[in-house]
Amino acid sequence: MKNRLAQLIQKDGKALFLPIDHGYFQGPTHKLEKPRETIKPLLPYADAIMLTRGVLRNCVDPANTKPVILRVSGGTSVVGEDLANEGLTTSITEIVRLNASAVSMSVFVGSKYEHQSLINLTKLVDECEDYGVPVMAVTAVGKELEKREARYLALCCRIAAELGARVVKTYYCPEKFHKVVEGCPVPVVIAGGPKVDSELEVFEFVYDGIQKGAIGVNLGRNVWLCCRIAAELGARVVKTYYCPEKFHKVVEGCPVPVVIAGGPKVDSELEVFEFVYDGMQKGAIGVNLGRNVWQSEYPVAMIRAIRAIIHENYAPKEAQDLFEQVKAGKA
Questions:
Q1: Among candidates 82, 218, 77, which has minimal Cα distance to 138?
Q2: 87-109 mean pLDDT
């Protein structure tokens, strides 16, 4: 435990953590669509990186020596009903196997899911303490940003520490932030929150927070949906529907391979060939089609034509020609 904490908190007692875990509920976040490219120039200057297992496995060089703070809570998204309805998403076996120096999870004090998130924290602490892995609690506020005031944040931080968190990540507030830190018996790091209007604003709140007792910061957006969330939570491959507009954004924002789902049966074979071809050109590695193959009157001709698009780079009209030849028994 002490060794892992020493990896995170430097000899001067301070720390600079770089979180890139936003995709676990936001999907492809601006400037974080391609995590590998975003973090490469930043890693040398961070004391640790905070991320999900999906991004760790697919976007971080295995030779990386920077300590990893593994995000292990999730199960909600910005398009869902309530961000506070999180659960634990990663087992202690996986945490140890991925060589995490610490883990992080969110607690939602005062929300409908307060009890659930706090009990999740205690369960995580129990498991991680057995293996010497520190838990960093994140005092999340969901979409209720007005909660970022000292009295509420002090309450959250203290509860998280009392329940066993070794470090607490919380939001900075300009008034009485020292009360937040003084009331928390474990180290406090400052969360970045929403992007501000200027670099000076970042420097000012970081400086003030450090002067008032925080040991450091955990800033992501101020330094730099469905498919990305699935990848962040650990999926090795994601199957999703094709969309004619900006499908490349879906693929680019997902750090694991994307395969195209068939969706509803279309009116002609050519329509299938066109969306398969376009999806492949925009980065999908393949398709996962059912009804558009076996509901066809000529399923063998369909699958051979689709296979030609995927493995032989046939254009839609070439695939249509092949379909007709197989249908006629000429190929």
A1: 218
A2: 95
* CA gap 5, 102 in Å, rounded: 8
Task: Give the whole-angstrom CA distance, residue 294 versus residue 291.
Answer: 5
Domain borders along the chain are 2-226, 237-327
Per-residue pLDDT tens digits for 250-293: 888 888 888 888 766 678 999 999 999 998 999 988 887 877 88
Q: Is the pTM of this model over 0.85?
A: no
Amino acid at 223: V
Active-site annotation holder among 31, 143, 147, 169: 169
* 169 catalytically annotated: yes
CA–CA dist 124, 8 (Å, integer): 19
DSSP string, 65-106: -S-EEEE-EE---TTSS-TT--EE-S-HHHHHHTT-SEEEEE
* CATH dotted code for 2-226: 3.20.20.70
